[in-house]
Amino acid sequence: LGALLLFHRPERPREFLIQALERVKAGRRAEGEYPELMDEANVEAMFALLDVLGQGHITPAQYREALKTLGLSDEGLEVGEDENVTLDVFKEGV
């Protein structure tokens, strides 16, 4: 939300944020398209922060924690505890 404020620089930030959150809420109810809160570069940067050794993958625990931090559900994840999560899988989940 902070990034949206910096990018759009609305005259009335409070109302802008309320509208953004209402669009997210409406999208959840209608199971429609969510407004884009993070672009691909943001997702890649987040993955890079988690993949500190640059191995090209993170652990399922890191993946779940990232989803939790973003307020996303990890229900129905099909990632086993012994599997690695690649950037492509991370992008799909986020």
TrEMBL record:
It holds the Pfam family EF_EFCAB10_C. SUPFAM superfamilies: EF-hand (SSF47473). One of its GO terms (molecular function) is calcium ion binding. Residues 38-73 form the EF-hand domain. CDD domains: DD_EFCAB10 (cd22976). PANTHER family: EF-HAND CALCIUM-BINDING DOMAIN-CONTAINING PROTEIN 10 (PTHR21847). This is EFC10 protein.
